[in-house]
Amino acid sequence: MLETFTPLSALAGGALIGLAASGMLLFHGRVAGISGILGGALTLPRGDTAWRLAFLFGLIGSGLALGLIWPAAFTNTLDTPAPIVVAAGLLVGFGTRMGNGCTSGHGICGLTRLSVRSLVAVLTFMATGFATATAIYFLRGGA
Fold first, then answer.
1. CA 51 to CA 37: how far, in whole Å?
2. Rounded to two decimals, what is the model's pTM?
3. pLDDT in tens, 108-118
4. Residue 121 belongs to domain spanning
5. How far apart are the first and last CA of the chain?
6. How many C-beta atoms lie closer than 10 Å to residue 118's C-beta?
7. How many domains does the chain have?
């Protein structure tokens, strides 16, 4: 997996995410937490839906556009069956609701605002991710 790591593209992606989150907070006074934006779009609060739908459309639309322009960007290198990936995604979604936010809200926006709650959430996300990845590695026969 580390053979495909490219630091410059990771740095550029991180900078773009940081700029987008900063712009959202500076210009709109809103935290760019994906689970909160999606949750609000699904509950359809009055007068607060259009920007959420535009944000989600941009998030999905930009990925679709990149896939059309550069299909190799989405080459699947996982050997995990699709149902397991879907189940994992659903568990992540469930966890973000339980944690009252996702990694984008807590990790990118919350930590920069020095939120203790976000620090605890991020440490929990990371510890759980490390433990899960390690367990799966050893369960699959890793050495």
1. 9
2. 0.71
3. 888 888 999 98
4. 2-139
5. 16
6. 24
7. 1
Q: Name the residue type at position 51.
A: W
Whether the CA torsion 7, 107, 67, 2 is positive or negative: it is positive
Structural tokens at position 13 = 């992606």
Burial tier of 33 (Cβ tally within 10 Å: 0-12, 13-18, 19+): buried
Q: If you write DSSP's letter for every residue of the chain in order, what string do you get?
A: -GGG--HHHHHHHHHHHHHHHHHHHHHH-----HHHHHHHHHH--TT-SHHHHHHHHHHHHHHHHHHHH-GGGG-----S-HHHHHHHHHHHHHHHHHTTS-HIIIIIIIHHTT-HHHHHHHHHHHHHHHHHHHHHHHHTT--
